[in-house]
Amino acid sequence: MSNKTFVELFGFDHPAARLSEAVVIIIDMQREYLDGSVPLPDLQSAVAGAAQLIARAHEHNTPVIHVVNKGPDGNLLFNAEGPYYAELSDIAAKPGEHVVVKPLPNSFAGTNLQALIEQTGRKQLIIAGCTTHVCVSATARAALDLGYQSTVVADATTSRNLDDGFGNTIPAAIVKQVALAELRDAFAVIVKSADDLLL
Questions:
Q1: Beta-strand runs (E) in 159-195
Q2: What does the alpha-carbon distance between residue 33 and residue 20 come to, in Å, rounded to a whole number?
Q3: Catalytic: which of 28, 130, 155, 176?
């Protein structure tokens, strides 16, 4: 039995993204996941990984686009008028960096993200953020449909504990591991940290 990915089996394998040819996408690194309603167990580590990624992007003049999640009007979760909507300070958008507001897990759905990427003329994406199994995964999957090559930085993403509906709790670390393995199988290159990206 082969352990090759579908990407390898179809012959579509490509290397990790080059900072000189990519756009960095930072997804949903907001206070809701720090001290709001959905605290994530390994958030600080993921934020450190994302901060390292952003620093490398700035070093190499790689465009950085921030995506934030906005909940439905009147909803307490990701309420744009509430205290937990803001990006975390360590990775918050700098002057000149675009911030895209999304209503759905897929960062392209109902937003101008694709138009902003197209303005750069680049076709490679470097994706980080929260959560690995929902918004990071949904965005990387959609990116493939739109003709982009995605690289996900594992150390710059994180997930949460999940209930499987049958009385079992799946630890966040396993949720993240499986989500990354699924993406690697058919949708994206996975690297451990920003140091593994090409220049």
A1: 162-163, 169-170, 188-191
A2: 31
A3: 28
